[in-house]
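ok so for the tutorial part 2 we go from a plain amino acid sequence to predicted structure tokens. step 1 is just haveing the sequence, like this:
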Amino acid sequence: MTDKFVGYLAKSAGAKFEKAEFEAGPLHPEHVEIDIKYGGVCHSDLSMWDNEWGISQYPFIGGHEAVGTICRIGDQVKNLKVGQTVGVGWNVESCMHCQSCMSGSHQMCPTVQPTIVHHHGGFANKLRAHWGWTIPLPEGVDPSSAGPLMCGGITVFSPLYENDIRPTDRVGVIGIGGLGHMALKFLNAWGCEVTAFTSNPSKFEEAKRLGAHKVLATHDKEALSKAASSFEMILVTANAPLEWDALINCLTPNGRLHIVGAVTEPIPLKVPQLISRGASVSASPTGSPSVITKMLEFAGRHKLAPQVEHFPMSKINEAFDHLKSGKARYRIVLDADF
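step 2 — the prediction. this is what the tokens look like for a chain of 338 residues:
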């Protein structure tokens, strides 16, 4: 049986979203079908909609921070049932048998299927995903604001978990936006001494409200010089060129500069500077289903939620304009109103 869903699709790069019916195909035995209630709007949706990365396929249906209720399950689905409230993030499926999947790094699977790359996303009345990538929301996590946790949240949580960041560590966060504001909240609850780096002086007090203990101006060379050897980790959530030498100088011995913002320009690195302090420069995508689950449990336990603005899904074009203008504080969630 071939099913039909209703969603908001763009017929070409940057075109307005239009409500339309589309073919969903039969339900795979290992997939679940989700009635979408909420869909976060991420900057990656904006990039894919505009074909900024050259991999988009049209008509395009975005939405990879989806939250809803399971309405159907395939006959080989494990550990899930109809009626559960669940979330789906950047990926909807991986092979489940390669070395990456078998070792718990499903997000690194060579054939991992992103939710909005040659696949329709959550800006629709329904979404399908493999049961392994369909994550139940734990108690304490509000479904109406949980969508951004499924992509932005795990993107900044995973480096803390995977790199064994300790409560005694001092961590800097560069960029107080969609990713950075969640990093501040997580790190504060983690127990770290948290420093926000921002190029916008108007965000100093807001950064402290979000969880920062200290704030530094990103391009203040004197302040960066005084912060030498201060941080076990600096997490870069911004996507702009930075004072890379000065930032590496801010790392403690064996410190790490970790990048999750999509910096498109080459980053100049002085190897002797890295060698002298045993410093590392690394980067990562989102996270595995296991770590997403741990992140949601941590968020629920500490009552952490992204700061969101809501739009009806029928106002998707206005929501994208708001995001594109840079006015979003700090994530946008679309409420399904089909």
